[in-house]
C-alpha cells in the first residue's frame, strides 16, 4: 500500500480549482442579473437558458460521449496528431461528430420556430414565446461550446477544457450588467439571451484557434463535408444509447424552472433558479470528478481492471460526499444573508434552501454514478430508468408546487432524487459489481490499494482451477 494520487485525481483537482473560480463568477453574475432584470424577466430568462441547455446537450445525440471515449483511448503517438498529408483517426472522429450535431441542431431549430409560429395562433402566452425564442438564439453557440469541451477533455485535460466557458462567459455577463447600470439601460430576458449567445459564440471561436485544438479542428472541418452517410449512421447507432446519459443530469435540473413556471408561475421559477445554484454548491466536486473519471472508467472497463475501477469510484464518492457535507453546512449557515445580497423580493430563496441542500447531499452520497453507467455497459438501463424517473420528477414538482407553492415543488424534487439514487446504486452493485458509496475513512481515497486487486486475482485463479 502506498500513498500516491492517481492521474485522474490530479486532473480533477486542477479542474476543481477552475470550477471554483467559475462558480464565484457565476454567483456574482447571477446575483447582479437577477437584481437587474427583476423576478418576472429573470424567471423567463432562467427558463429559456434551461431549455437551451437541455437541447444543447441533446443535439449531439450521444456522439459527443463516443467522441470523448475515442479520443481518450487514442494513443498519444497516433497519426491523428500529425496533421500533414495523412489525417488520423481523431480528426476524422471530430468531423463526423460535428456533422451529426449540426444536422440535429437544424431539426431542433425547426421545431422551435414551428412552436413560435403556431403558438402565436394558439394563444400561447408572450412569456412562453419569449422563452422559446431566447432558447433558439442560445442553442447553436451553446451546443458547439459543449461539443468543444467533450473534444478537449481527453486532449488537453478537464481543467483547460473547462476554463473558457467557466470564467469568460460569466465575466461577459458581469461586464454587460455593470455597463448597463452605469448607462441606465434596461434589458429584457430576450436581450440578455442574445448577449449570452454572442458571448458563447465568440468564446467557442477563440478556444479552437490555438494549439492542438486548432490543428485538430482545422483538419476536422476540412473533412466534415466529405463525411459519408454510412459514417454518420454508424456513429449515431453508437451514440443513441448514450442520449439518456447525456441529457439525464441536465434535464433533471434545466427543466425544473419550466416545470415550476407551469405550476407556480414565472416569479417562483426565478426564486427556484436562484436557489438551485446555491444549493448545488456542495455538488461541484461531484461534477468535476465525474468528468475526470470518464476517460479513466473507459480504460478500466476496456482492460477489465475491476479492482482499480472499484477503488476509483469509491474514492470519488468519498471525496464528493465529505466535501459536500462540509460545504452544505456552510451554505445552510450563511443562507439568511442571501436576502441582503439578492434583495427582499427574493426572500423565498432562503425558505427552500434546507430542502434543496438535503437533495444535493443525497446525490453526492452515491458518487459519480453517471460516468460508471456511461462507460461500463449500463447505458440501456440508464435510459429506461431516466425516462421513467424524469416524468415522475416533473409531475411531483408541478403537483406539489400547485398545492404548496415553491416549498412543495422543492419537496417533490427531494423525493424524486432520493428514489433515483436508491435505484441506481442497487443496479450498479448488481452489475458491474461496484459499490457506489463513500469510504468511512476519507484517507482511503488517497491510497493506491493493491489488496482488492489481489483478491480479484485469487477469485479468478479459483475459478480457473474449478474449470
Gyration radius (Cα, Å) is 23 Å
- Secondary structure class reads mainly alpha
Percent of residues in helices comes to: over 70%
The fraction of residues in strands falls at under 5%
Span of the ends, CA to CA:
32 Å
Largest sheet: spatial strand order? 1-2
DSSP strand tally: 2
Low-confidence stretches: 75-87, 449-467
Shape summary: globular
Helical element count? 19
Output mean pLDDT. 83
Secondary-structure element order, as H and E?
Answer: EHHHHHHHHHHHHHHHHHHEH
Q: Describe the biggest sheet?
A: 2 strands, antiparallel
Task: Please tag this protein with its features.
single chain; 467 residues; mainly alpha; two-stranded antiparallel sheet; 19 helices; 81% helix; 1% strand; globular
Summed up:
The chain is an all-alpha fold.
How would you characterize the overall build of this protein?
There is one protein chain. The chain is mostly helical. Helix content is about 80%, strand content about 0%. The longest helix has about 50 residues, at about 380-430. It is globular and about 55 Å long.
Amino acid at each position: 500500500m502506498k500513498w500516491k494520487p492517481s492521474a485522474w485525481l490530479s486532473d480533477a483537482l486542477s479542474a476543481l480549482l477552475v470550477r471554483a473560480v467559475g462558480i464565484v463568477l457565476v454567483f456574482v453574475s447571477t446575483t447582479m442579473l437577477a437584481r437587474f432584470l427583476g423576478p418576472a424577466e429573470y424567471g423567463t430568462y432562467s427558463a429559456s437558458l434551461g431549455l437551451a441547455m437541455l437541447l444543447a446537450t441533446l443535439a449531439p445525440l450521444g456522439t459527443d460521449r463516443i467522441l470523448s471515449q475515442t479520443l481518450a483511448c487514442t494513443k498519444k503517438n497516433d497519426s491523428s496528431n500529425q496533421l500533414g498529408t495523412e489525417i488520423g483517426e481523431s480528426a476524422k472522429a471530430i468531423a463526423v461528430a460535428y456533422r451529426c450535431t449540426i444536422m440535429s441542431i437544424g431539426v431542433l431549430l425547426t421545431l422551435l420556430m414551428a412552436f413560435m409560429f403556431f403558438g402565436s395562433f394558439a394563444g400561447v402566452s408572450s412569456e412562453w414565446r419569449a422563452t422559446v425564442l431566447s432558447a433558439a438564439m442560445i442553442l447553436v453557440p451553446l451546443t458547439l461550446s459543449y461539443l468543444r469541451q467533450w473534444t478537449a477533455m481527453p486532449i488537453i485535460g478537464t481543467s483547460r477544457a473547462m476554463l473558457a466557458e467557466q470564467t469568460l462567459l460569466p465575466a461577459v455577463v458581469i461586464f454587460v450588467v455593470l455597463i448597463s447600470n452605469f448607462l441606465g439601460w434596461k434589458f429584457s430576458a430576450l436581450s440578455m439571451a442574445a448577449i449570452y449567445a454572442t458571448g458563447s459564440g465568440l468564446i467557442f471561436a477563440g478556444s479552437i484557434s490555438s494549439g492542438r485544438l486548432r490543428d485538430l479542428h482545422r483538419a476536422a472541418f476540412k473533412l466534415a463535408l466529405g463525411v459519408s452517410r454510412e459514417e454518420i449512421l454508424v456513429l449515431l447507432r453508437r451514440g443513441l444509447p448514450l442520449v439518456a446519459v447525456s441529457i439525464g443530469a441536465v434535464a433533471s435540473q434545466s427543466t425544473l424552472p419550466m416545470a415550476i413556471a407551469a405550476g407556480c408561475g414565472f416569479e417562483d421559477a426565478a426564486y427556484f433558479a436562484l436557489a438551485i445554484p446555491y444549493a448545488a454548491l456542495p455538488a461541484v466536486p461531484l461534477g468535476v470528478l465525474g468528468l475526470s473519471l470518464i476517460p479513466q472508467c473507459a480504460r478500466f472497463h476496456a482492460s477489465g481492471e475491476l479492482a482499480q475501477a472499484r477503488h476509483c469510484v469509491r474514492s470519488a464518492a468519498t471525496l464528493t460526499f465529505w466535501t459536500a457535507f462540509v460545504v452544505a453546512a456552510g451554505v445552510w449557515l450563511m443562507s439568511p444573508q442571501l436576502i441582503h445580497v439578492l434583495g427582499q423580493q427574493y426572500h423565498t430563496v432562503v425558505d427552500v434552501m434546507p430542502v434543496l441542500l438535503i437533495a444535493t447531499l443525497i446525490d453526492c452520497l452515491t458518487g459519480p454514478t453517471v460516468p460508471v453507467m456511461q462507460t461500463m455497459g449500463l447505458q440501456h438501463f440508464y435510459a429506461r430508468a431516466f425516462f421513467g424517473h424524469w416524468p415522475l420528477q416533473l409531475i411531483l414538482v408541478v403537483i406539489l408546487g400547485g398545492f404548496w407553492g415553491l416549498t412543495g415543488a422543492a419537496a417533490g424534487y427531494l423525493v424524486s432524487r432520493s428514489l433515483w439514487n436508491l435505484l441506481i446504486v442497487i443496479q450498479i452493485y448488481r452489475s458491474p459489481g461496484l459499490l457506489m458509496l463513500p469510504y468511512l475513512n476519507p484517507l482511503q481515497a488517497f491510497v493506491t490499494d493493491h489488496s482488492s486487486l489481489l483478491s480479484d486475482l485469487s477469485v479468478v485463479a479459483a475459478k480457473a482451477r474449478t474449470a
